[in-house]
Amino acid sequence: MELAHIHQHFLSCDSVSTDTRKITPNCLFFALKGPNFNGNTFAEQALAQGASFAIVDEVTYKTSEKTILVDDVLETLQKLAIYHRNYCKTKIVSLTGSNGKTTTKELIHAVLSTTYSTIATHGNLNNHIGVPLTLLRLTPETEIGIIEMGANHQGEIAFLSNLAQPDFGYITNFGKAHLEGFGGVEGVIKGKSELYNYLQEHDKHIFLNADDPIQLEKLSGYVKKIGFSQNQQNYYQIKLLDTNPNVRLQFEEVTVQTQLIGTYNFTNCCAAITIGKYFNVPKEKIKTALENYKPKNNRSQVLEKNGYKIILDAYNANPTSTSAALSSFAALKGMKKIAFLGDMFEVGPTAKEEHQSIADYLDSLGLEHAYLVGENYYQVKTTAYKFRNFNELKTYLEVNPIPKGTLLIKGSRGMAMERILDFL
């Protein structure tokens, strides 16, 4: 069936689904395949549960007029997303980077949605499936779409850029994330810069942190750039006033008291302010949006439980984000500080070196207590407590309760360091 006809079927549906556990009435079901499943086998089930159509790529499962046979379901999902993106003519803002993508995306959405009809990537659905699903949520009435792009290998951001076809772009930073897949820090810079490459090739606008020397160098000769800075006068000026404990900043004589911690979140706020200003969002609406934004999903959350204050930043971790979190944590004043760090994954052959570097930095901070968890941290030389796995930590904490104070909890997703909350 031609893409235009599939698009007509799509328009007649209320939503898209790739999971029979989440079928809603009158949805369009895409029978995707994975290493351990074949979505084609669930097509009939999806229709029985209320899907209006099911797209399959194995002729055996073309059982009725409601099953649409294509050569490749995933490729059809991606092509349909491009077709629909152009049908809607929505302005697209794409962002990528090593750290802070999801929080920055949420902040941009909070600011722009005060003035425009916007949609943004749900959670971190930022890959070759998530980006098409986000594009298919656009409607002709959507004025701005905010598309997060994630990657851990060369070429992925280029591919996603060709899907989303952004009109604007922003890279949060270039850090030590997914080093294994990218092949080191230079590989990270090259991979993430694929968004810059797309935007420059298509003469589109780029937002940048002008206090980041890598971004400045990458865009030195490009005209269509809109930057923010604390100290360079030829860029939009935003000042960091305080981070003890929450970020307080100022732009155009407007003071913003956020619910976010850490200087790294100051930069995320700057991006949202700059993009909001570009789109003529009134500054008082920008202020309100940033002040009302509250972090969630284990990302820089500030919690209180049984007399403990907790900075829960356990959604993920890499050397850059962990160093930044420790730096901001150490700068907090007037409190007893206790750090729990879990292993950093996808660091590749530099894992030993990177974990030792974090341990050395942690030792230099002189925190009251520090606990390191995981096979990599267990190998480092440190004055902190070390545990090979979470079960060892659990056994220790059952006998040695965590001292009262302010806790930083940080680790890669696979470490699930938020389980520490059960011991408070």
UniProtKB/TrEMBL annotation:
<dbReference type="GO" id="GO:0071555">
    <property type="term" value="P:cell wall organization"/>
</dbReference>
<comment type="similarity">
    <text>Belongs to the MurCDEF family. MurF subfamily.</text>
</comment>
<keyword id="KW-0131">Cell cycle</keyword>
<dbReference type="InterPro" id="IPR035911">
    <property type="entry name" value="MurE/MurF_N"/>
</dbReference>
<comment type="function">
    <text>Involved in cell wall formation. Catalyzes the final step in the synthesis of UDP-N-acetylmuramoyl-pentapeptide, the precursor of murein.</text>
</comment>
<dbReference type="Pfam" id="PF02875">
    <property type="entry name" value="Mur_ligase_C"/>
</dbReference>
<feature type="domain" description="Mur ligase central">
    <location>
        <begin position="96"/>
        <end position="275"/>
    </location>
</feature>
<dbReference type="GO" id="GO:0005524">
    <property type="term" value="F:ATP binding"/>
</dbReference>
<keyword id="KW-0963">Cytoplasm</keyword>
<dbReference type="Pfam" id="PF01225">
    <property type="entry name" value="Mur_ligase"/>
</dbReference>
<feature type="binding site">
    <location>
        <begin position="97"/>
        <end position="103"/>
    </location>
    <ligand>
        <name>ATP</name>
    </ligand>
</feature>
<feature type="domain" description="Mur ligase C-terminal">
    <location>
        <begin position="299"/>
        <end position="377"/>
    </location>
</feature>
<dbReference type="GO" id="GO:0008766">
    <property type="term" value="F:UDP-N-acetylmuramoylalanyl-D-glutamyl-2,6-diaminopimelate-D-alanyl-D-alanine ligase activity"/>
</dbReference>
<keyword id="KW-0436">Ligase</keyword>
<dbReference type="GO" id="GO:0009252">
    <property type="term" value="P:peptidoglycan biosynthetic process"/>
</dbReference>
<dbReference type="GO" id="GO:0008360">
    <property type="term" value="P:regulation of cell shape"/>
</dbReference>
<keyword id="KW-0547">Nucleotide-binding</keyword>
<dbReference type="InterPro" id="IPR013221">
    <property type="entry name" value="Mur_ligase_cen"/>
</dbReference>
<dbReference type="InterPro" id="IPR036565">
    <property type="entry name" value="Mur-like_cat_sf"/>
</dbReference>
<keyword id="KW-0067">ATP-binding</keyword>
<keyword id="KW-0961">Cell wall biogenesis/degradation</keyword>
<keyword id="KW-0573">Peptidoglycan synthesis</keyword>
<dbReference type="Pfam" id="PF08245">
    <property type="entry name" value="Mur_ligase_M"/>
</dbReference>
<keyword id="KW-0133">Cell shape</keyword>
<dbReference type="InterPro" id="IPR000713">
    <property type="entry name" value="Mur_ligase_N"/>
</dbReference>
<keyword id="KW-0132">Cell division</keyword>
<dbReference type="InterPro" id="IPR036615">
    <property type="entry name" value="Mur_ligase_C_dom_sf"/>
</dbReference>
<dbReference type="InterPro" id="IPR004101">
    <property type="entry name" value="Mur_ligase_C"/>
</dbReference>
<protein>
    <recommendedName>
        <fullName>UDP-N-acetylmuramoyl-tripeptide--D-alanyl-D-alanine ligase</fullName>
        <ecNumber>6.3.2.10</ecNumber>
    </recommendedName>
</protein>
<dbReference type="InterPro" id="IPR005863">
    <property type="entry name" value="UDP-N-AcMur_synth"/>
</dbReference>
<comment type="pathway">
    <text>Cell wall biogenesis; peptidoglycan biosynthesis.</text>
</comment>
<dbReference type="GO" id="GO:0047480">
    <property type="term" value="F:UDP-N-acetylmuramoyl-tripeptide-D-alanyl-D-alanine ligase activity"/>
</dbReference>
<dbReference type="InterPro" id="IPR051046">
    <property type="entry name" value="MurCDEF_CellWall_CoF430Synth"/>
</dbReference>
<dbReference type="GO" id="GO:0051301">
    <property type="term" value="P:cell division"/>
</dbReference>
<feature type="domain" description="Mur ligase N-terminal catalytic">
    <location>
        <begin position="15"/>
        <end position="81"/>
    </location>
</feature>
<dbReference type="GO" id="GO:0005737">
    <property type="term" value="C:cytoplasm"/>
</dbReference>
